[in-house]
Amino acid sequence: LIQIWVPIKRGLKSFLTTVQQPHFFHPTSTRLIHFREVSEQYEFPTDEQTKQAVGLPGRVFLGKVPEWTPNVCFFRQEEYPRVNYANVLDVRGTIAHQVLERGSGECVGL
């Protein structure tokens, strides 16, 4: 499963979402199709002072550093809010890489 996460503004808050963003999965992989549907229901805050769980997308966005793990199922709910779905759908390894704007170095997505 390949997903793009981008920041959107809602009022004064900014969140990462994958809704209506490019994505790819093999059409016969029902587990990944379901995980994509789950991911579309999540938004991760991009505010550094947030008290909410920022999850993997938020950590990469805020830290501007890629993150990789061979098994997300070892994460706690606070670290990877989709961990329960990952367990049920047998999603394991993940990699997230930031997309930085050339001039400013600002993270514009992942």
What does this structure look like?
The protein is α+β, with helices and mostly antiparallel strands and 110 residues long. The chain has one domain. Helix content is 24%, strand content 25%. The chain has helices at 30-39, 55-63, 83-89; strands at residues 2-3, 6-10, 13-17, 23-24, 44-45, 67-69, 94-96, 99-100, 107-109. It has a three-stranded antiparallel sheet with strand order 2-3-5. The chain is globular, with a radius of gyration of 14 Å. The mean pLDDT is 95. GO terms for molecular function: DNA-binding transcription factor activity. InterPro entries: NLP (IPR045012).
Name a few traits of the molecule.
110 residues; alpha+beta; 3-stranded antiparallel beta sheet; two-stranded antiparallel ribbon
Quick summary of this structure?
This protein has 110 residues and is of the alpha+beta class.
Can you count the helices? Answer: 3
- Calculate the mean pLDDT score and round it: 95
Instruction: Return the domain count.
Output: 1
Total E-strand runs: 9
Encode the helix/strand succession as letters: EEEEHEHEHEEE
Radius of gyration, in angstroms, nearest whole number? 14 Å
Strand order of the largest sheet: 2-3-5
Tell me the span between the first and last alpha carbons.
Answer: 14 Å
Estimate the strand proportion: 15-25%
The poorly predicted ranges are none
**Helix share of residues?**
10-25%
| Biggest beta sheet summary | 3 strands, antiparallel
Oligomeric state of the chains in view: single chain
Helix-strand category: alpha+beta
GO molecular function, one term: DNA-binding transcription factor activity
InterPro entries: NLP (IPR045012)
